[in-house]
Amino acid sequence: MASEAERTFQRFAVFGESSSSGTEMNNKNFSKLCKDCGIMDGKTVTSTDVDIVFSKVKAKNARTITFQQFQEAMKELGQKRFKGKSPDEALENIYKLMEGKDPATTGVTVSDRLHSPDSASLSPCCSHLPSSAPMSPTFQ
Q: Domain with 87 in it: what CATH number?
């Protein structure tokens, strides 16, 4: 049975990656996990730290990490995030931050929604733009 940390890893690994099986995670989703779970706090653990640790644990020419490599990364980030704690305690605290977390979808900008395939139905401000199908006015 998969641990809670492994389930969180899988949820973030497939986020925005339709072809992902959830067994490997790219740097973008690794950073998102660290940010959404509060591992990256902007002070003791920054986005630069997260990128460096990702690069350190991945295979030389790889663009993704496995769950095993992810665990190594969490050990390293745990030591940085929870200074003064034992490595095991720090890792345990990191996993507590991750418990039950899903990729956040809040903060999606309006422009992202305007560029969706059905943007004409979402925003009347785009009705003046040319489209592939003629639009009939819905107002009277």
A: 1.10.238.10
Distance CA 139, CA 42 (A): 49
What is the pairing mode between strands 24-26 and 64-66?
antiparallel
In total, the chain counts a number of residues equal to 140
Q: Whose CA is closest to 8, among 67, 87, 78? A: 67
Alpha helices in 15-109 (DSSP H): 27-36, 47-57, 67-81, 87-98
Banded pLDDT at 132 (limits 50, 70, 90) = low
Query: 10 Å Cβ neighbour count for 102?
Result: 11
The predicted structure's pLDDT at residue 18:
83
Residue 33 included in any domain: yes
Q: Is the pTM of this model over 0.85?
A: no
